[in-house]
Amino acid sequence: MKENFEVTLKQMILIIHRTINSVDKRLLNHGEQVAYIMLNLLKAEGSYSEEEILEICAISVFHDIGAYKVAERDKLVEIDTVAPFDHAFYGALFIKYFSPLSDLYNVVLTHHFTFKYFKDRKMNVISKEGLLLSFADFIDRVYFKKGALTKEYIENHQKNYLKEHMDLFNDADSKFDFISKLLDNSYEKELESFFETKILTREEVLSYSKMLAYSIDFRSEATVKHTILVEAISYQIGKLYGLNEDELTKIKVASVLHDIGKIGIPVEILEKPGKLTDDEFEIMKSHAIIGYNILSGLNIDDIRDIGTLHHEKLDGTGYPFGLKGEEITVEIRIMAIGDIISALLGARSYKEEFNKDKIIKILKNMVDMNKIDSKIVNLFINNYDYIINEAQNQSSDLMNMYLNLNNEYNTLLKSFV
């Protein structure tokens, strides 16, 4: 990570891309290919600024992010059936509340609704960019299913889409020859270079990270509560420890992403009402290396390490690498303790929330066994009430917003069907 905490949109897109790909290989590159189609369509259209195109293409990359929540992935690549839309509602709500592109949530909301759908139901079109994204998504599904961008097939389905979109598609291809780039995969470098022009602010990095992490965690309410509390506790400990603003920002981003590898863990293990078997625990442990791999090679190694090495122990008995002693940085030590405290505070089906005395006793025992840092534990114990109160206040609004998503989802569902 650069000293001034510089993260590009390209880096964030790659994180999102790798995470989405780890869910279902059948959707490999789908988001990026749709974004590339949108890039060319918007350039050919000619009325959008580069900043507007950047934002719409970023939205396009993770337009299917809501599919983590609903069982629709089997249908997302189909082209001859009615497209599913539950995931579009969830994805739109994630973007509305947990991304720096909240003003564009309607684009994702409508990305599986054609112009014919709105016309038949005599509904107003919510987003013209959403209709264009629906068209771009259809084009890529044609390619995915047929192994070629068959213009004849697309034209035969024109009744579902606007003629102006088909004209724009042909115009964009004649200007930029983008179909051939999709077919030979040379589009990837062009798209990455385009995203690399955007430097994200700290707030944008944190917001993108939350959007991704919470959409993954939405499969498990306990997991998202844990992530929110880890962020709040680790931040408070880091502030009292004396970390500077850059270090605290890294703590916040790493906290949000610390369990990103759980995307690869079956939900029945994440939500198991009881103690895991040895085999299940080994599967659960793999989330650390999955997350490490997702965040590797992006010039954010410190955030990667802070977030995904929180199960390492000072005596070398942790995972995924068995680091020990000075190999474990202060930030990783803080994250490890924040993770433990959040887990102890959380009530699950097989355990009650632990009280203050029991949490302190467990932490002291772990210090005595040389598992975690004594200085950080003592700092936490001496400021227990302050840290917990601040962390709970900091996370309560976010948690309430998150839990209200289901209510808003049901409202959206009623308005479209």
UniProtKB/TrEMBL annotation:
It comes from the Bacteria. It comes from Clostridium gelidum. This is HDIG domain-containing protein. Residues 201-396 form the HD-GYP domain. InterPro entries: HD/PDEase_dom (IPR003607), HD_GYP_dom (IPR037522).
